Amino acid sequence: MTRSLAANALIALAFLAAGLMLVVPVALIFSFALREGLDVYFANIIHPNTLHAIWLTVTTALIVVPINIAAGAALAWLVTRFRFRGRQLLISFIELPAAMSPIVAGVVYLFLYGGQGLFGPALQSAGIQVMFTPLAIVLVSLFVTAPYAARELIPLMSQQGTEDEEAALSLGANGWQMFWHVTLPNIGWALLYGAVLTNARVMGEFGAVSVVSGAIRGQTNTLPLQINLLFNDFNVTGAFAAASTLTLIAVLTLVIKSVLEARQNG
Amino acid sequence: MNKLLASAAFALALAAGPALAQPTDILNASYDIGRELFEAENATFVPAYEAANGVAVTVNQSHAGSSAQARAILEGLQADVVTFNQVTDIDRLVDGGFVAADWQSQFANNASPFYSFPAFLVRAGNPKNINDWADLARDDVGVIFPNPKTSGNARYTYLAARAWAEEEFGGDQAQVEDYLTKVFLNVPVFETGGRGATTAFAERELGDVLITFEAEVLSAVDLLGADKYQAVTPSVSLLAEFPVALVDKVVDARGSRDLAKAYLDFLYSADGQRIAAERNHRVIDETVAAEFADRFPEIRLVTVEDTFGGWDQVSEEHFADGGLLDTVFVNQ
To answer: Are the Cβ atoms of B4 and A66 closer than 8 angstroms?
Structure first.
């Protein structure tokens, strides 16, 4: 079947629009980052504060993603394998962090653990500093990305039902054996997909982190905060160099996601 | 599971970090655009301190709007010293019990090692012949300064213009308000902060004159070229202090008082003052000020205390909703 001229024109238009609105900005990041040459680009990236921001962002993701994947799997298990009063309410609660603005999450944490907050004074008198440390960044990241894994798993696990697991149990498997050999293989791809989404969100989070970070250079500045800071300091090349590392991570994440999807469908 | 435990241990280790005794690092919580200045100050202070005391130290920096920094410290940001550009923001720390009430007498010159004031930046050759506050109300002059509702910088501009007008019109309020209204109507767009206003004037080429701190005016000339812009010093302006203070609650808890005090003292030393002067801040050390006399023309400065009765009164009379600012800021 041959396409009409109009259809081809529309397809061309879609490519043009996508190119202008999506590809050009991304290309611009790299052209700005590299406009003073490769040596300046690398000098910007290995600047101790930027390097520390990359380290902090990656470390935060390495802590947050496994915790939220485990918690998300447990939650999805609970709400799809058991029927209990308040189940729907619990499902709604899981969605809450995704529905509210991250800045609200940051402010809420400040009011919980800040010096004038609910637990802050008690923690401070015990010598524990939560706000404006990497711990605060990990905590808000956990909160903000809490729903992503469960969101991926709940529809899949509801759809799959419990038959495979019941079969395993009736054949004499214990709980862990059933989980490792039956449940996990069934939900594996969804779990990985959830991890990819969680990771992207942790690394890119700006609003919530900016409230609780304290913006101490080389200590509590994550990559998005560092980009914002360099930009405000008129260091455009440095800002775009830092942005390019975040973009590369995003592209890598997308590639992993596409590969996972292809394998899941194929 | 091991990963989880390791993560938890890591998080705990991070949390326990600041509790270590005998710190060799301090945190300077500072205003938004002070980064280059304090990076340069730190680069000289650190080796000087090590040479004198045999201890290698680190000065960490955190920069944001000074009101935001004050809030963060009240919420627990462990800043040993503050170097702000608003006296009122240190007063908020006093109210919160973080800074001693007599902080302004702990260091010289009301605890303000540097100062500046609102000055003018015009295009090279001064084509519109803008020389003093009177010119800002002319019909043919476009004026750029940020929004006084959001910018401390612009509050100084408003007060400086008002101080000039009060003198010029002998305190006739109708004439003062008429003048200020005309100045505000000459502003095509109100940016939220000082840097935004500089960008609007320099890169978007809006207006004929930018009003901002002299330090920013002179830096803009340095950065953007004397062939494009020139500084104009008005006949009178309003003293803008850059106050510093020890955060007593933090230095006492951390045991970092000596190092923190040494750092603030350094800002008053000849070296510290010279670094500030090189970055276009007026300094109080007379020898250093004399070295940089070419850069800083003479000017008569009035103070918020003498002209307006202090910051508390200013906040109440001028900047509260429905205050004197709102009567002249008709195009907000």
So the answer is: yes
Find the closest chain B residue to A235 by CA distance: B36
Report the CATH superfamily, name and number, of domain A32-265: MetI-like (1.10.3720.10)
B143 torsion bin: left (phi>0), alpha (psi -120 to 50), beta (else): beta
Is the Cβ of A109 closer than 8 Å to some Cβ of chain B? no
Q: Which two tokens stand for residue A56?
A: 């902090």
The Cβ of residue A265 has, within 10 Å, a number of other Cβ atoms equal to 7
Per-residue tokens: B19: 């509790």
Nearest C-alpha in A relative to B6: A63
Token pair, residue A150, equals: 């469960």
What whole-number distance in Å separates Cα of residue B332 and Cα of residue B322? 13
Asked if the C-beta of A116 comes within 8 angstroms of chain B's C-beta atoms, the answer is yes
Strands B236-238 and B300-302: parallel
0.90 exceeded by the pTM?
Answer: no
Contact indicator for A109, A212 with CB cutoff of 8 Å: yes
- Interchain contact B13–A (C-beta under 8 A): no
CA A140/CA A105 separation, integer angstroms: 7
- Residues in A closer than 8 angstroms to B7, CB to CB, are 62-63, 66-67
CA end-to-end span of chain A, whole Å? 26
CB of A214 within 8 Å of a chain B CB? The answer is yes
Least confident window among A98-107, A230-239, B13-22, B123-132:
B13-22
Q: Which of B51, B226, B32, B272 is nearest to B121 (CA)?
A: B226
Summarize pLDDT for B177-190 with one digit per residue, the tens. Answer: 999 999 999 999 99
Helices (H) then strands (E): counts for chain B: 16, 13
Residue B87 contacts residue B66 (beta carbons within 8 Å): no
Q: If contacts are CB pairs under 8 Å, which of residues 149-208 in chain A contact chain B?
A: none
Which domains, ranges and CATH numbers included, belong to chain B?
Answer: 20-115+241-291 (3.40.190.10), 118-238+299-328 (3.40.190.10)
Task: Find out whether B277 and B202 touch, Cβ atoms under 8 Å.
Answer: no
Q: Which residue from B minimizes the CA distance to A114?
A: B75
Helix (H, G, I), strand (E, B) or coil at B62: strand
pLDDT, position A116: 84
- Please report the pLDDT score of residue B14 as a whole number: 47
**Average pLDDT for chain B:** 89
| Partner A contacted by B288 (CB < 8 A) | no
